[in-house]
Model the fold of this input.
Amino acid sequence: MLNSTPKELIERAGGAINPAKTCQPIGAMYAALGIHKCLPHSHGSQGCCAYHRSHLTRHFREPVMASTSSFTEGASVFGGGANVKTAVNNVFTIYNPDVMAIHTTCLSETIGDDLPTYIKATEVPEGKVVIHANTPSYVGSHITGFSNMTKAMVSYLAEASEENKKEQANIIPGFVNPGDMREIKRLAKHMGVKSIMFPDTSGVLDSPITGQFMMYPKGGARVEDIRDSGNSRITLALGSYASADAAYHLERKCKVRAITLKTPIGIKATDDFLMTLRSNFVKEIPYDLEEERGQLVDIMTDTHYHFYDKKVAVFGDPDIVAATAEFLLSLGMRPVHVLTGTPGGVTGASAGGFEREVKEMLDQSGVQANIKAGGDLFLLHQWIKNEPVDLLIGNTYGKYIARAEDLPFVRLGFPILDRSMHPYLPIVGYKGAMRLLELIGNALLDRVDRDASDEDFELVM
Amino acid sequence: MEEMEVVLLTGLPIEERRDFILTKGKQKRQLKCDADSVAGSVSQRACVYCGARVVLNPVTDAVHLVHGPIGCASYTWDIRGSLSSGADLYRNSFSTDLKEHDIIFGGEKKLARAIDELVRKYRPKLVFVYSTCIVGVIGDDLEAVCKAASGKHGIEVIPVQSSGFIGNKSAGYRAACDALMRLIEPGEKKYVIKSKNINYLGDFNLAGEAWIIKRYLSRMGVDINVVFTGDSSYAALKKAAGASLNIIQCAGSMIYLASRMEENYGIPYMNVSFVGIEDTSNSLRNIAKAFNDPEMAYKAEQLIEHETALVKPAIQRYREKLEGKKAAVYVGGGFKAVSLIKQFKEIGIDVVMIGTQTGRPEDYRRIGDLVDDGTVILDDANPAELEKFMLEKGADLLVGGVKERPLAYKLGIAFIDHNHNRKHPLSGFIGAVNFAEEVYATVCSPVWNYI
Done:
């Protein structure tokens, strides 16, 4: 299907071919699903809401509930104020969530809908909360939308209600799967650190089957916990793109110290995460985490020759890609093409931040690479044509390139539409690193087996 | 729908939804449908752009350029499962990826650049430019940009007026049909059926379904001129006016195009359905009848007899295992819903709940005629309603689309995708077996024993 991708690089100014991102509102919807008993609400046309729900459903294979303002021609001429009012009323009467999290769309942003005013003018039932985030689709990406909705949680809910800070850490996990959020919470718990995670989609988008449909599954960050995040001593923002804005906003609002770390993918980023908890809460790393780390290093040494000097193209969301690239380097691999669809300068990360950060990392390891924050998969394919790789890592959309170039392909990130299990099994922490090692190792070795001539076909590898 | 009883909607707090739901019985009331969804509802419906995109997407050798911010292009990237026998340009995702600057200063220049770049790279003969919500608001003159680009490159660049908020999915079907009408070259005006060359409207060649029908028709001595739009190409669509008859499978999306073609080119049309043995057989007979050709009618009978004999034993085997099971149906259009009721009857299953996103009053009348008393009929359902009625009616199986699948599973109810994500062709005689097998595979799976 991609046979017509030319090798010769061309300057393009007319938009994207085969995008490596999608729009803000879906990220906001995903973040809002990480609040317990929250109904995300899409303030725009019906199609936006339907697309986001379908796309999330394809990735998580779970029901995704969200309501819509159902814009019509009238609303887009006279403004969506009346729609918000009707929607708030209907949502609480029919679906009865604790929280309604409204995000905007390109349409409602462009016609200038003033959500804070609309919400103030609307009667919200006692004990219920309406929050909102501005998520214009023409700025940033789904990661920006996730960041903005997370920030809205801080704006609307977090309070510094106590004089002294509590011995607890806020953890903002970033746009990762519920299985990753579970693993990060497990690590904090093992460290003996009380943590408040928001948003937290574990128990929402990986809920068990019970024979009943639960509009609001058991999981998600509790509103009272998000309120209490203003009393925590520190906030760990995991991933500067998806999480830093909310953390710094909380620092300004409630004087909770913000620390930005990489998403804990791979050994170094997981070390950093645990050491930060250790140094801030004067805890020792417990033996079972040391054991996990030791096992990971053991596996890395056992298998390092499988990975040595292999050239990799990795694409996806910036926080995930930066951390993954770091892990690849620790295995002796060479991430020679590193690309995201999220342009710099729209959230916590400054313009050019991603490219600079990744370049520094690669320079230290002496790896020359193509790096781009706001790229698309057409460009990635051209890069690969010019400098072939041994492995491709990225979301499902990478499969076209993998097929065209006959590359081993490891699925990682969002969305994954053609394989299951990803939402459940973590890629973060030491255990997650082991899983990544297995995925990458199997992809490479399956290829060696496939391509081996009879005399080279080996039993022990 | 005169003889329907109003179901007691206790537990359904939203008063406005009452008129959209019926239980077949004895009272007189018309089901309300084809209205906008209520603000604040968890609707399963989509928008104008979505409707236009699904209809046009299968045109294989066109550049499908989505003019707007990235989302609308991302969510529709290669999700239809429409197969191609040739070009695969349509499986790429092209977007003008509008940014804040473009929203303020207008997106026309960027659109023109995007067309230039894509034409230079892919050398298409046809470019569809879809407008999204925002284009309708910032006032880009799509028509003018497309016209200029068309002149510049000497190819057809056709705007699709599909801003999301100007209506529902059906309005999108219309926008797509308008775009297709602009493509079709005027042929000779004629009402007399001369050749045995037909257009097949409303099959998107999911899992290769149009190819199955093409083979059947070919055995009857009928050639397909072009399929709208499954596995279609620019050149084939151009010649659409040369057909002597239009047959329509998905009426919801294509009846408008068929009537425009009748008006402009004098091509008569008829509805067909290749879903299930009964409807497939009747459709083939009706096509032969339309040509008033005894030999064709004979060939049709032979084909029907032959194919039915081939699939009957398998269907009978599945029927024995499925007899007495109950199905719920929630699909996009009314026509498919009608066929599914009959197809379920063929495998011994009763439909106990049935609804559509965009069914029209006449569809609901036909549905009402076909189902048994007590069946719940609903328009534009939300998940809570689907859950309530599936449980109340004891459904063993739901037929639906992407969003309905996990809902059914959570309830311990089996599921069939009769939408973009179908994996096997469900059309024609062979499709009837595939359907029965899929139903059996999910309804009788051992996994349900562990819930």
User: Anything to note?
Assistant: Chain A has a mean pLDDT of 95. Residues 361 and 434 of chain A are 22 Å apart (CA to CA). Residues 24-157 of chain A form a domain with the Rossmann fold fold (CATH 3.40.50.1980).
